[in-house]
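Customer escalation, tier 2.

The customer says the design service returned an amino acid string that "doesn't look like it belongs to this structure." They asked us to rerun it and document both sides in this ticket. The original structure tokens are below, unchanged.
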């Protein structure tokens, strides 16, 4: 076990699973058709009930009382692993086995698209099913990633989760977060773990960083968007955004924009140039986008650091 995972487990929260939780989970899982689905939903429901009990102890308001929440006929699309926090959104509860060190992030289909997913909570269920451990969490807003493996050592701690939710309670949902709720998102931290989605082509990898590129069609022309990602000693995510023409100079008047706190930073091609380069310093989990604009045409790519 590496040092990061050891430190994460030292801050993990052990929690008992009472018989009432097991009965409720079994009753709900029995509504599903196959033994495999019943077992999966049973464990997911245990994780949700444990997370619900723990978060209510911390003073957060949850909502497990909706009648449709416990009617599988209304939820056959669901893995039954979402916990709704009133006014905040859904927290997806991901079950891990004892000793497991990585997990596949659920796909977008696991959560109702009209609700905002605020993150993933990772819950270890003991083989006895009488105890659980809340290991850590990963902040997210409706990521559309499938089969992306995340190392548990890269999770944030349970202390961080409490702080994250407390801040979310006092912070109104901004326009950027609303925009992210229905967009395809690329997780840059995954690149540092050698995890890439199909549309991004890795072009460089070393001990501290990774660079990937993607071709974008805009106004009948092809451009290459390249992002270089590394992590500083103070945990900031260092990102350099580079935009190039495929075989020629960038067209005059082209703009590349990124969010800059409450404003937007834009670079414009006013003279002959073969690329635009924008450096960024981001907090882990921070949302941002890169927009390419040429005349009336524009395209945006969405990222979480």
């Amino acid at each position: 076990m590496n040092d990061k995972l050891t430190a994460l487990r030292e801050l993990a929260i052990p929690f008992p699973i009472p018989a009432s939780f097991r009965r409720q989970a079994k009753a709900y899982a029995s509504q599903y058709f196959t033994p495999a689905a019943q077992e999966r939903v049973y464990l997911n429901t245990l994780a949700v009930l444990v997370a619900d009990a723990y978060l209510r102890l911390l003073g957060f308001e949850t909502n497990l009382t909706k009648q449709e929440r416990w009617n599988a006929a209304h939820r056959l699309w669901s893995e039954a692993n979402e916990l709704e926090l009133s006014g905040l959104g859904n927290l997806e509860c991901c079950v891990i086995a004892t000793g497991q060190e990585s997990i596949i992030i659920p796909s977008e289909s696991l959560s109702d698209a009209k609700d905002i997913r605020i993150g993933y909570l990772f819950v270890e269920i003991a083989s006895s099913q009488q105890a659980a451990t809340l290991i850590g969490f990963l902040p997210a807003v409706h990521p559309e990633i499938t089969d992306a493996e995340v190392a548990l050592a890269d999770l944030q701690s349970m202390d961080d989760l409490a702080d994250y939710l407390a801040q979310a309670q006092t912070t109104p949902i901004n326009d950027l977060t609303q925009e992210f709720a229905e967009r395809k998102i690329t997780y840059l931290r995954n690149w540092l773990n050698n995890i890439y989605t199909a549309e991004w082509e890795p072009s460089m990898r070393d001990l501290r960083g990774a660079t990937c590129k993607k071709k974008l069609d805009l106004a009948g022309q092809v451009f290459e968007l390249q992002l270089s990602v590394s992590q500083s000693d103070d945990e900031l995510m260092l990102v350099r955004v580079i935009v190039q023409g495929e075989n020629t100079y960038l067209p005059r008047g082209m703009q590349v924009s990124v969010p800059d706190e409450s404003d937007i930073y834009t670079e414009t091609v006013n003279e002959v140039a073969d690329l635009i380069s924008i450096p960024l310093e981001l907090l882990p989990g921070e949302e941002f986008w890169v927009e390419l604009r040429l005349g009336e045409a524009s395209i945006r790519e969405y990222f979480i650091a």
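Tier 2 assessment: The sequence is consistent with the input. The radius of gyration is 21 Å. The longest helix spans residues 35-57. Sent an explanation to the customer and offered a walkthrough call.
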